[in-house]
Amino acid sequence: MIEAMPIVSASTGLHEILALLTSQLHPDANHKEDLVFLKDVFSEKSIGYLMKIHEKLKQYEKHSPTPVLHSASCLAEDLAEELQNGPLEDDEQELLLLLSTPHLKAVLSAHDTVAQKKFDPVLPPLPDDLDDDLEEESVKIVRLVKNKEPLGATIRRDEATGAVIVARIMRGGAADRSGLVHVGDELREVNGNLITHKRPDEISQILSQSQGSITLKIIPAVADDDKMKESKVYIRALFDYTPFEDKATPCQEAGLPFKRGDILQVVSQEDPTWWQAKRVGDCNLRAALVPSAQFQERRLRYRMKMGSVSAPISPKAPTSSLRRSFRHRKDRQGSPGEAHTPDANHTEFLIYEEVAQYFPRPGERPRLITLIGSLGARIAELKQNVIAENPRRYGLAVPHTTRARKSHEREGVEYHFISKAAFEADIQNGKFIEYGEYKENLYGTSLDSIHRVLDQNKVCLVDVQPEALKTLRTAEFKPYVIFVRPRIGDGQRKQFGSSSSLSVGVTDDDLQEMKQSAEQMDECYGHWVDYVLVKEDPASALAELQVVLEKVQMEPQWVPASWVRR
């Protein structure tokens, strides 16, 4: 509970109010966790320091100080020279030491720069007259200061009038920050050069090559169409994109290159063909162009129809197993059905996935850890080692089987042993995320076995074929998918040394098959993967996996937006 606050005056500082508020927080039974959290936050020293800094800045702003002189650096140098010419007392010695430090010299130099206002850009004088053909029109002269960054605007030619029109303003770019250039403005001159008869690509090149001051002569648009607020839509890219290889982009320099898995913030969807977006984590605040989902899907369908490019698509039916033992093969399937060639009219293309940040909360069921592995990854062994290291925190979804129980095996530990009739009934009832047959015995992992582990508040590790991800990728499980693949390259036999049970049977053909398996799995299922673990050896792989598992339970992650919406 929070008691009545003592009366504070207008002069009471923010850090003092914060201290008073903290002292009044007394946790009760109903809101104990929330109030303890608030008290911990308000008691942080860093918060108190921020409040004090805020007060000092407010005082500074209120007094509106102005520089007393414009040459503090020179004055400091003269004083230091005077001090060096005679015997020094202790305080004089300390002052000389302070004046010679690079930090103080930098502060004084910054002071002089501000006082002398040398930071203002030097702009050429405004023209005294305008062209005769513009006298009757409303003309705006815009001067922008631009460094190596793009101007942040694209242009187009009006088909009816032939005028050069500003097509879009990139959020955060130089044009956007100025607030002087708007969508629909007609561009007449650039740095005094008439551009009416130039092609848009020639004009774009002039703008991109211009440095420092740029003077634009503009006929303002009748209406300002660029007042839309920045959106907060986040998407995960499911394909690679290189603007300089895209002939359809209106401006290659304004394009945003990205890789599959990058998180993008879409700040504008006004244009149905080209969205404006920023890559999350980039320090660059300027938005750039990316193909819209509708446009990308439209051209992928066209390419698929023409047969020129194999478009990236989401798996629609189970495929053949990508992971198997060197010594024997086990047929495993997720659900009945044959793989088929996708119909272009009913294909789910891999373009973007809307995402949101998920924050793990105390008391909430842990995220399901799903391991998929290519040929030779041996993820079953890796999973068992994680659980053996910390059995109280990690659990295993015990599989079902129809084979007879061996003397050393225990029901519900190694397997759940059930009859073939019961197993087939569970298949019909959709209880298995995957199942298969090996040596005339059925094996499968059930949804119930996963729930049993999660209900104990343990982190459940499952090792599945990638086809099962389509069943598991739900808000209920929020699976974190880890793709384990062996390192295949120079010295690849090192991990299959004398201590490995596979060392005798591994051939160059096997290694090539392992490489192809990893590449095929990445191509087909990489868009569902949250982390790729390249396995050098069992010990290092175990250590890396343990670090990843800790982060999953403690740090926020990007997940499909539908998983966090209520």
Automatic annotation (TrEMBL):
Domain Guanylate kinase-like span(s) in chain numbering: 366-550
Classification via InterPro entries: GK/Ca_channel_bsu, Guanylate_kin-like_dom, Guanylate_kinase_CS, L27_C, L27_dom, L27_dom_sf, MAGUK, P-loop_NTPase
- Matching SMART domains: GuKc, L27, PDZ, SH3
- Give the top-rank taxon of the lineage listed in the UniProt record for this protein: Eukaryota
Q: Which SUPFAM superfamilies match?
A: L27 domain, P-loop containing nucleoside triphosphate hydrolases, PDZ domain-like, SH3-domain
Q: Where does the PDZ domain lie?
A: 141-222
- The SH3 domain, residue ranges: 230-300
Which portions of the sequence form the region Disordered? 309-345
Pfam short name (any one): L27
Write the record's keywords in alphabetical order, separated by commas: SH3 domain
Q: Where is the L27 domain?
A: 10-63, 65-122
Protein family (similarity comment): Belongs to the MAGUK family.
Identify this protein by name.
Membrane protein, palmitoylated 3b (MAGUK p55 subfamily member 3)
Q: Which gene encodes it?
A: MPP3
